[in-house]
DNA sequence: TATGAATGAGTATTCATTCAT
DNA sequence: GATGAATGAATACTCATTCAT
């Protein structure tokens, strides 16, 4: 029954990731010790090093997983509407993510504090296919007829810049209310996105 | 000669700030210890605590001072050109800052890692008039005839968002070459700024 | 006007003692730093060392002064009653002190934590005549007709032991409610004193 | 062989307690640093925190253990004499303890400086049954026929007060020779105890 | 006398990492 | 694989004391 053992093994790792996630959110990355993690995960200290190189290793895991999850979730929600207007779909996705961050300030804080949103792509390149689905979402935007005839690289930069800007605005407005709270920034932000995407 | 003592005192503080600055750049904020700082500054450990509450206290000092300095420098350079076109002036300022960051990657890394650009305003409000000149730069943009008739708050948000976006793009492209290197991003970025500012 | 200077000088010392007293009570002896003291006293750090060797030096000053003050105060109150019964007078004095400690738990804690009541005599021997009045009180008991014919040394030991015991019981019962609260201990304690003094 | 590991673990703890004991005696509690302790105990600094919360934590351990030990030892010695007279037995126990303190001035100093003898009961309540034997000694006095018919609470107060007084007198006379050395205080002290216990 | 800037040894505590079992 | 006792370097922060002014 190798499967059972595999599952048990995987359970320990899962348990460590889950514990880390909770603690990073609650106490922040720096103030969370490996000791905290293994205690919460109910495994021995040495076990941590069986699965991860160090704390950052777990963190990367988490950020990647979460970012990917949110993006895919947002895309699916957009897809279900059955709307064909790409600009509106992008804004829908952005809004979905903004709303997610409004509800999950700590996630935003965690991601922003230690990693920059767009870095995800670097990692995805490395770690595919585990996070392939997120890549597919990006692809589906890039190959949309709306951008027909444009250099795909340029389009990618455009999307990248939009995501980047949104992340930045979210962080400033949701966490620090600068220059205004997110609900007052939203119409403004979406206006800018429309301008950027206008052909 | 009370002045001499005051000067000596100021020198110690300066020395601590300088040492901190160098070390934060070289080793990063987290990996720099107070011990490192005082050793490099050639002062006793206790002296550090005479002038600063903790490491973050020095950091805030540094970031504020540098950000203010760069902004003012960029604005002056723009001013000297004697060009009246606001949009072009803004792009000039942005470009000045981008070029600065290209030359000083570590500064960018330092600022971005621990503080968000636009937060500076919060601090300036507190610490004026020491950093009043930076504020004046912002004011001069806000009150430019180009924005005549627009809600100043809206204009501020616009400028804020542009600065924010630039900082983010700089960080991604200069530090991580994502999605492309900064020189390939620049025309693109400035195009977006023009779109955003277009009336 | 040497007098004025003398007074000013004395004021600094007074100010240091007062500040120390307040701080020892509030934060405890160990957790009070010389820095705390000079800040509260509004004098420069160096000034402290002009008047005291170290922290303990101030403490001894305080304990001595306070102990002497309480004892004399208690004795005077007893004296005013015009009662001749020595045993009752001693119990009256003890009760006066007990009541004082009930109202000033912190004083009790302070004295007991760092110095033992009866040590005062050692100091009085050294520092007379500043605290001579307290000595007189002791004398007046020692030479009371009640003890006529007894070895004065023996009488002193008796009184000493009583004071000692009272201090100990006060500390245990007032601070720790052990073995019972002070009001339940009092009749008991006074009974024991009567037994001890009975001829 | 799980036992071996357990034993080694216990040895480390023992080693820390022993080292602390020696150092507290030699240098006093306040002047002993954790560093001193671990160096003497030949364990790593972190190991200390594996077994104790802080310095006071070790101290409580030590005081409790020693007090209990001395009391039990004294009681056993009294028991072996086979004498039935309670008053004489109490005086024997007291004398045993006094003699112990005469031989171990530093122990007295240590105990008295930081903890009050009778507080031990509070702790014993918490930590039984490890120190149950000491409790039994107290019980055996409380339930002695000599006190038949008296309120046990009152009897406890009486014993408490006697112990308290003895501790205080020991401290003053053994450590400070005040008001006289212990050998001159002893007959006097025992006389007082007899008076107190006389029905 | 009085000041207060400067000192730097001293201290408690944390924590990533190892390794024998 | 899994454990958890042991490590000890690292670190932040305190504070009594000095001394030039």
UniProtKB/TrEMBL annotation, chains A, B, C, D:
GO terms for molecular function: DNA binding. Residues 10-70 form the HTH tetR-type domain. The keyword DNA-binding applies. Pfam families: TetR_N. Residues 33-52 bind DNA. Keywords: DNA-binding. Coiled coil: none annotated. This is TetR/AcrR family transcriptional regulator. It comes from Ligaoa zhengdingensis.
């Amino acid at each position: 029954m190798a499967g059972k053992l595999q599952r048990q093994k995987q359970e320990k790792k899962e348990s460590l990731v889950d514990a880390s996630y909770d603690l990073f959110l609650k106490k922040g990355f720096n103030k969370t010790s490996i000791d905290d993690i293994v205690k919460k995960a109910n495994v021995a200290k040495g076990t941590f090093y069986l699965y991860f190189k160090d704390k950052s290793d777990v963190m990367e895991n988490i950020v990647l997983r979460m970012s990917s999850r949110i993006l895919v979730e947002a895309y699916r929600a957009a897809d279900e509407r059955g709307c064909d207007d790409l600009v509106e779909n992008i804004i829908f996705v952005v809004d979905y993510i903004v709303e997610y961050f409004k509800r999950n300030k700590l996630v935003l804080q965690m991601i922003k504090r230690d990693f920059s949103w767009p870095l995800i792509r670097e990692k995805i390149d490395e770690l595919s296919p585990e996070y392939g689905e997120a890549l597919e979402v990006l692809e589906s935007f890039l190959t949309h007829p709306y951008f027909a005839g444009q250099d795909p690289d340029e389009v990618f930069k455009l999307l990248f810049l939009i995501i980047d800007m949104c992340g930045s605005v979210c962080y400033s407005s949701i966490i620090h209310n600068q220059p205004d709270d997110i609900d007052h920034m939203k119409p403004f932000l979406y206006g800018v996105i429309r301008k950027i995407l206008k052909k």
